Amino acid sequence: MVLFGYKFCNHNATGLQCSCEQIFNNECSCDRMNFYSFLHASFTVFQILTQEDWNMVLFNGMAQTNHWAALYFVALMTFGNYVLFNLLVAILVEGFQESKEEEKRQQEEDAKKKAQEEEDERKKELELLLARSTSPAFLNGTQGADCTCVPKPPVSHTEDNEASQELKQALAEEERRNEQKQNTCFRRFLRKTCLYKEAEYSLFCFGPKNPFRIRRIVRCLQLTQKKCFDYSILAFIGINCITLAMERPSIPPHSFERKFLTFSGYAFTLIFSVEMAMKVIANGCVLGRGAYFKDGWNVLDGTLVIISLVNVLFELFATG
């Protein structure tokens, strides 16, 4: 209101900007979106934030004042829309997060209750089987001084064997369930293959005690711990971005610029491929602790390097 209070109103007869007195005397007509009152200013700002014909308000403000008015509208649209959008996203995310946490909590409670019920049921089965497989050999007398030997009731071998088999089956079932809790089917299958035995081998060729790999590990650790290594990689990435931004269809095919961009692309691909190869040899590719593709940033870098190598191969095949 302070900046554009009556700027969006023109006199009906002359077409010039109105003064406050002329506006109060109803001698002027204002645009639909104006800053004459607090209510109209609020609606105008809301329209700008929603990006609904905000450029028309911008043009009217510049026409009625000067070109510097564009700074206000651009800043309002940029930062105001950013704040409003993030506020709405935060409200939605908070609502989804609360519902997911409540659902997760309910699932955990149901799982614990179900596991406790299964555990109690297994304990009852084991106690029942143990009671059936054993019987008392002596009974106490009425006074406790004299003991009368009570012969064991005859038990057939068939009943004894059935009780023993049921006990063994229950114990085996308990052991199997405990094993399922610790290991998944994929891990059990993986342990039976050579992949699990050679998980610590980089590319299944370089073992943990391989001298070539040990030298690479030492060199990579010494190199990556230096700040100059990180700065050099960032510098290469920045220069590569600049060369990619220089690409355009209008470059002549046999010009110096085209040759420079082509060879610079090959050079950057080679540099990043060497970096990836050193890390893979030192830390492993997929399996093993600290493998290259177990880190999210390395997955992104490796994917870009592989795409660059494929692009170089296609270019060589096309030109060769």
From TrEMBL:
It holds the Pfam family Ion_trans. GO terms for biological process: calcium ion import; membrane depolarization during action potential. The chain crosses the membrane at residues 70-96, 228-246, 266-287, 299-318. GO terms for molecular function: low voltage-gated calcium channel activity; voltage-gated sodium channel activity. It is found in: Membrane. It is a multi-pass membrane protein. Keywords: Coiled coil, Glycoprotein, Ion channel, Ion transport, Membrane, Repeat, Transmembrane, Transmembrane helix, Transport, Voltage-gated channel. Residues 101-120 are annotated as: Disordered. GO terms for cellular component: neuron projection; voltage-gated sodium channel complex. Residues 26-103, 227-314 form the Ion transport domain. Residues 157-184 form a coiled coil. Signal peptide: none annotated. This is Ion_trans domain-containing protein. The lineage of its organism: Eukaryota, Metazoa, Ecdysozoa, Nematoda, Chromadorea.
